[in-house]
């Protein structure tokens, strides 16, 4: 072997994880809820505000969330095939 391989290791804190705020729209699965996050942005050509909705399967360890709850979710390691988010806190319970 003639070449030397260098490896850079970053020490300290890990990178910032994404945090989102959304509403629970389904809670029928065990330890999983579906959270919908809505945002609005202007159309590129017509400048009309267009609503965008994204749904995430979110890990809910204690099965505390119900439909209509406002929750804060955070990105995490893959928990299953489609779950990459977990519930941080329930901001507001549904009435």
Q: Please, could you describe this protein's structure?
A:
The chain is mostly beta strands and 95 residues long. It has a domain at 27-92: Beta Barrel (OB fold (Dihydrolipoamide Acetyltransferase, E2P)). It has no helices and five strands. It has strands at residues 19-29, 32-42, 49-59, 70-75, 85-92. It has a five-stranded mixed beta barrel. A hairpin with a 6-residue loop joins strand 2 and strand 3. The radius of gyration is 19 Å and the shape is globular. The termini are far apart. The mean pLDDT is 90.
Topology overview:
Elements: E1 19-29, E2 32-42, E3 49-59, E4 70-75, E5 85-92
Secondary-structure element order, N to C: EEEEE
Largest sheet: 5 strands, mixed, barrel
Helix share of residues?
A: under 10%
Give the CATH superfamily of the domain at 27-92: Nucleic acid-binding proteins
| Range of strand content | over 45%
Q: Could you give the count of β-strands? A: 5
Unreliable spans are none
- What is the helix tally? 0
Secondary-structure class? mainly beta
Specify Rg, calculated over alpha carbons.
19 Å
Mean model confidence by pLDDT: 90
CATH topology annotation of the domain at 27-92: OB fold (Dihydrolipoamide Acetyltransferase, E2P)
- The backbone outline, from C-alpha atoms, is globular
